Amino acid sequence: MNFHHWSFAEYRDAFNRSHLKLHSNDDITDKVILGFKMYKNYFNQFNKNGNFSGKLLKLFFIIHVKLNTRLLKKKRRYYIFLGEKLS
Predict the structure, then answer these.
(1) What is the distance between the alpha carbons of residues 15 and 84, in angstroms, rounded to a whole number?
(2) What is the band of 36 on the pLDDT scale with cuts at 50, 70, 90?
(3) Please, which residues have CB within 8 angstroms of residue 32's CB and are 6 or more apart in sequence?
């Protein structure tokens, strides 16, 4: 997910070059951010023993979640597109 963020215009142009007709799109960025914010619920379920590797994994996820949440709020967007291939 860190390497494939285009602007809406870049996606639209890529669809046009690929002869895809775009019917609709939905920006789901806010829902993705909400999902990221729920990461603590997963750790409460899976990391009950508190070992070192579990703490290291938790640190990785905290950094990953905070970085991606910040990027999504500032410059990245998540879209769902619906379209069809033109003949």
Answers:
(1) 10
(2) confident
(3) 72, 78
